[in-house]
Structures
1.
Amino acid sequence: MPKLFDEDFDAIELAEGALVLNQAIDPETQVHWAEQEMSRLLKEAELALFQETDEKQRFESFLRLFYHDWGFEGDRDAYFDSANAFIDKVLERRKGIPVSLGALLLYFGRKLGFPLTAITFPTQFLVKVQWHDEDALYINPFNGEYVSKHILSAWLVGHRGPFTQLKESHLKEVDNPTVIGRWLALIKSALLREECYTLALTCSDLALTFEPNDPYEIRDRGFIYQQLDCHKMAQSDFQYFIDQCPDDPASELLKTQVNAMNASQVTLH
């Protein structure tokens, strides 16, 4: 596997890029097994759809294969579980969240020749299918159902308020690096909820490789250092945030924490 920052994410499928990310965060990610499983499922799909001649019907058969026969589904019981963001675990458990299920849907669908693209809608990840000279259709990867613009508008209102209107910019196609960056933030949040601070620290360090001086990411890293009892490093990160964002409400709280850490330091003789 290539190193994360040696990889050209737009030159590979999103699911393959996610595996690169997953392994960079957790070296125990079953990359080889996941690649073999994806290859096996792709061959199975090719055989299952071989006799379908109508392209749209072939696509509908593919959706049934993915969600019914293979059994992929959204994890309704533990949506925020970090396992839902690691491709190998999604393949193993057949459960995920929109971005991980959508990445797999894109991987198999594009390999099979379907006109699919990624959409990072404000509320969740979507997959767009657009047949020649027809309006685009949008699929919710969580359950494989089509979602109308009316439903998307309702989602947007629920997310941003009653006066929000659906715009074409909300349905803009995005490149893989953009999705990978958001995926990284998602994994970090899940790991923090699970108190997996060492892996969360890796996420933060990876994010800072993209944006080395991001004060909010450095603040988050300071919190992680604090949980790992690395108080000197936490203090340094908190102070950086305070200096860069003095008007942010969080700065006052962090000043109190920095002062408390200064007061609790023990002088060694």
Note: The CA atoms of residues 20 and 83 lie 15 Å apart.
2.
Amino acid sequence: MNEDLDDPRLTAVGLFAEAYTGLMNRLAAQIEEHRLSQVEFEVLMRLARSPGHRLRMTDLAGQTTLSTSGVTRVVDRMERSGLVRREACPSDRRSSYAVITDTGMQRLSDVLPGHLELVQRWYVGLLPETKLTELLDALRTIRDAVNPCATAGSAESALPA
């Protein structure tokens, strides 16, 4: 038998994937009750938490699991639903911003209480505060290494290193 099958690195990746998948499955049904997909919820969250409640479309793609064309399709769909709007970038005619609308903010406000309850029950509430802080620090280290664009255009990317 190949000794690599017992490598703890495989266990680390497997546990991470299992935890993520399980958590997302727990959260998905509640998000969908509010007529949102998981990716639409993620887009609304990222826009609501960004300076001016907006992000350049390329930055939004960098912060999500979507390609640039995927972000365009999602924003198109969300724009038709009145959740976001596009604004031209005044300094670069080739770029545009996705901006959360009042309707999008209201939908997000409707989703968040139940979402936070589930996040508490199935994620942060399972760990003592010190372990949660360590986990968040570790996740940021990994995220920054594997996805350096993850905070592009956000308040976090504007913080000094």
Note: Residues 157-161 have pLDDT under 50 and may be disordered.
3.
Amino acid sequence: MLTYHSSHPDGREYCRAEYNETDHWLHATWKGVVTTPDGQRAAAKMLQQLHLTQVPYLLNDNSQVLGPWFDSVDWLQHIWAPQATRLGLRYVAHVLQPHTEDDLGLLLQHNPFAGKFELQFFTNLADATTWLRDRQRLDAQRSPAPTLPAPSTATA
């Protein structure tokens, strides 16, 4: 299992991002206080994981974040998202930090990630994982069945 840990200088972990081999997605769990530089460093590590795993699914869990989330939308939109999209990211299930549902309304008025990947917000991890699994099922249904070569008509 490919895992990256991002920690504060005092050793407290604020982000763990791991490739979940069973579900075939990248799962990032953020916790505690996350500053802008912290968030950017950990998100950059996620790009490395996307490059190595080539998975189109990200489960981004902010349910354990304390205090204000780092001021990230502009950086994510212009720096991180284009790179993640080039690496094949297509779906992001984002579990909101508790009590930030009002912030969601502002973001949804103008989705800065439209055209890059499909982003859905959730208030709990169970709903987010269900949505990602549904995306995987839809992708599997849309994938064309492998074509077999046409039988040879040559005669000996």
Note: The beta strands are 3-7, 13-20, 25-32, 57-65, 91-95, 118-122.
4.
Amino acid sequence: MQNVSGSPAGSTLYAPSGKWALVTGASSGLGVEFAELLAARKVNLVLAARRREPMERLASELRRKHGVEIHVEPVDLSAPGAAGRLKENLDAKALRIDLLVNNAGFGLHGDFLDTPFARTAEMIQLNVTALTELSYVFGRDMASRGSGEMLLVASLLAFQPVPTYATYAATKSYVLSFGEALHDELRSRGVVVTTLCPGHTETGFDAAADARVSPMLRRLTMKPRPVAEAGLSALARAKPSVIAGLLNKIVAFTNRFTTRSMQRASMRKVMAP
């Protein structure tokens, strides 16, 4: 059995040589890791994020190292309608996307009422609305061709309510539920959808969220490369979802044996600096 890219079932990493992947949030963190892993397997790339300069540097390095084609697309996906405009821009350049890595997103740390609502709305727009619109506009093309892959990035926080990350965790619960449902809806149309749930990872997330890392959370922290590898490996095997890291899998599994109130109390302790 093969996945729709032609990779053998059970292969450890997505490897569709010569195809095009769109990686959002490609200027830092997991986005850079996804781009590097895919370029190493001769996948051409569209890099999309707000900041052009880091993407141009990454593109130059990957072209030199791997000889792939790379198109840089500066875009603020937190702006309403930006996802649709990105699709129109790529259509105008005749760039057909075979793999969508829906990675762009950010978090906000702090009590809900102490966070400016404009920032909360911006986060919801990016984490939920833009991700959904990107999945729709590129997913329709994939389904019409009968082939394609989408990797959605959720979070370990998707599995329980999280005081001080109330809205962020809720957006990631949406991504997990949405992605797993799409997996079932689209597989009969030749499109593989996998949702990746990272735990705490060494990226720029904490600085962007204005959060300090607790000692307990620090012990669960993963490097970004194995997280990205876990997502692409699960996609290659057509898995509906994957939690990166053994300890994170254990954390999610234990939720089955605890009450919601216990989960909230536990997460408040874990997140306390």
Note: The chain has one domain: 20-271.
